């Protein structure tokens, strides 16, 4: 029996409850990602006492496993057949392991440097594998929920909104409560007991967010495309993964994302160092910093949709790629050149927080636009291969995001070691030459990665909304005639 050829999902508008439920689950990834990118290096370097470059190397080494694990999870979820569809079984199964593993990450056993590094590496691999089992299938839902060109930007906007709100909201709670200044720890971000309290609350919230999202989107399963009817052998799995890399549009977005997310990783990993040692702020100001980032996220949610409708997705993405690093690096360059106000002056804090919020508008804008463009690549690939491979494509997209806590943290650790940044450093007593070198290397890397990203994204081959609509019409016509596309296989019953 020939396979029924599926057109792209319907071009429908989704209700607010569905968008909220879909986006809510990304709170788990937001907590994990902000924990990795903002706190993890500081914790293992300045609190546990491990060398920064070795911590960064251990975290990046864990990223190598993701390069293999993420696309396999994506491919398996593309072909899973159950009465709960392709994606939801993975989402439900990941919830509890994510919470348990994240708890273990922040409670390392006492041991030698090698033993602690081994613990960090092993648990980081397991945490990111568990989060992949949720995030890859969940991300792949976006192009399945609707094929509407602009509705996809809206849906993914909710995903990034909740991801950032969850992650930065958890940081806000952490700096305000768990890492608040105390007589014993006047720099609260160096308090080891605060990280233990943080880990319990963060782990519980991550598990709850995933379960609520899976339950909230469960009723959409009946509208989603079914799996390809034959479960492929492992050889074909890797063949499909390699085939994905031959799609130029995907490759452009993948390389752009590697560069832009690495830049964001550098920015967030060094933000706590800059706030603590360059600007000499205590944890109470880190609370204000977190609020400024949240403000930028909220502004980006509305801004990027309007920008995309006005100039198109590709151009909107390029604008965000170009503007983000300029605003993000400006305060630090201003300090090196003595343009910024002196530490302790009243104008310094509002100026820094305003620039932080503005930079975040464009930083989040990049992420939303890349994800929305990736959703459109799904139909382009379907027209070429006859298969919908949302899981594999969004595994690539998710891998890009992990570069925030992979390459970004590795480079951060290498930079801190290269400029001889001291372990257990005391704010106000770090040499000016060390801080200046830290700023200059950071800004130089930001410029290089941004220029590469801008050049690569300019080569994105897919057109705008009109071309996307034509592609959907061709797929619908093919499906209506029942003509199997390339790669079609015999149908077997869905597992009940």
Features:
single chain; 16 helices; disordered C terminus; Growth Hormone, Chain: A; mainly alpha; 496 residues
Helix residue percentage: over 70%
- Decide which structural class fits the backbone: mainly alpha
**How many independent structural domains?**
1
Q: What are the secondary-structure elements, in order, as H or E?
A: HHHHHHHHHHHHHHHH
The biggest beta sheet reads:
none
The CATH H-level superfamily is MFS general substrate transporter like domains
Radius of gyration: 23 Å
Please indicate the percent range of residues in DSSP E strands (runs of 2 or more): under 5%
The CATH topology name reads: Growth Hormone, Chain: A
Give the distance, in angstroms, between the N- and C-terminal Cα atoms: 20 Å
Number of strands: 0
Judging by the overall fold, what is the CATH architecture? Answer: Up-down Bundle
The CATH top-level class label? Mainly Alpha
Task: Itemize the secondary structure elements and their pairings.
Layout: H1 16-24, H2 26-47, H3 52-79, H4 88-105, H5 113-145, H6 149-178, H7 192-216, H8 234-244, H9 248-278, H10 283-311, H11 313-336, H12 348-385, H13 390-402, H14 407-418, H15 432-457, H16 465-480
């Amino acid at each position: 029996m020939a396979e029924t050829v599926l057109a792209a999902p319907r071009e429908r508008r989704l209700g607010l409850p569905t968008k909220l439920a879909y986006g809510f689950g990304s709170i788990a990834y937001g907590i994990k990602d902000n924990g990795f990118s903002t706190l993890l290096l500081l914790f293992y370097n300045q609190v546990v006492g491990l060398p920064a470059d070795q911590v960064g190397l251990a975290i990046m080494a864990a990223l190598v496993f993701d390069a293999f694990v993420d696309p396999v999870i994506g491919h398996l979820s593309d072909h899973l057949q159950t009465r709960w569809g392709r994606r939801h079984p993975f989402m439900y199964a990941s919830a509890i392991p994510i919470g348990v593993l994240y708890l273990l990450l922040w409670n390392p056993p006492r041991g030698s440097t090698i033993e602690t590094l081994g613990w960090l590496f092993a648990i980081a691999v397991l945490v990111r594998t568990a989060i992949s089992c949720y995030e890859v299938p969940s991300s792949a839902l976006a192009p399945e929920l609707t094929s509407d060109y602009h509705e996809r930007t809206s849906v993914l906007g909710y995903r990034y909104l909740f991801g950032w709100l969850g992650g930065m909201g958890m940081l806000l709670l952490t700096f305000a409560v768990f890492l608040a200044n105390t007589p014993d720890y006047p720099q609260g971000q160096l308090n080891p007991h605060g990280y233990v309290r943080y880990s319990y609350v963060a782990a519980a919230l991550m598990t709850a967010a995933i379960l609520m999202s899976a339950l909230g989107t469960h009723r959409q399963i009946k509208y989603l495309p079914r799996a390809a009817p034959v479960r492929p052998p492992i050889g074909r799995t890797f063949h499909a993964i390699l085939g994905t890399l031959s799609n130029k549009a995907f490759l452009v977005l993948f390389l752009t994302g590697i560069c832009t997310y690495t830049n964001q990783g550098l920015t967030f990993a060094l933000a706590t160092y800059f706030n603590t040692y360059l600007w000499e702020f205590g944890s109470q100001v880190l609370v204000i910093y977190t609020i400024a980032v949240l403000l930028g996220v909220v502004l980006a949610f509305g801004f990027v949709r309007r920008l995309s409708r006005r100039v198109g997705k590709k151009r909107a993405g390029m604008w965000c790629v170009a503007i983000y690093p300029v605003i993000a690096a400006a305060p630090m360059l201003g300090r090196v050149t003595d343009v910024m106000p002196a530490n302790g002056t009243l104008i310094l804090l509002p100026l820094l927080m305003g620039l932080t919020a503005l930079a975040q508008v464009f930083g989040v804008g990049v992420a939303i636009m890349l994800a929305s463009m990736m959703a459109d690549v799904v139909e382009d690939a379907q027209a070429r291969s006859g298969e919908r491979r949302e899981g594999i494509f969004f595994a690539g997209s998710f891998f890009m995001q992990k570069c925030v806590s992979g390459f970004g943290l590795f480079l951060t650790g290498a930079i801190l070691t290269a400029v001889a940044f001291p372990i257990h450093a005391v704010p106000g007593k770090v040499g000016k030459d060390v801080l200046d070198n830290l700023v200059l290397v950071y800004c130089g890397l930001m410029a290089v990665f941004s220029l590469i990203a801008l050049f690569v994204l300019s080569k994105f081959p897919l057109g705008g909304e009109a071309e996307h609509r034509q592609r959907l019409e061709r797929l619908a016509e093919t499906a209506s005639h029942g003509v199997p596309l390339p790669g079609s296989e015999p149908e077997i019953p869905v597992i009940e």
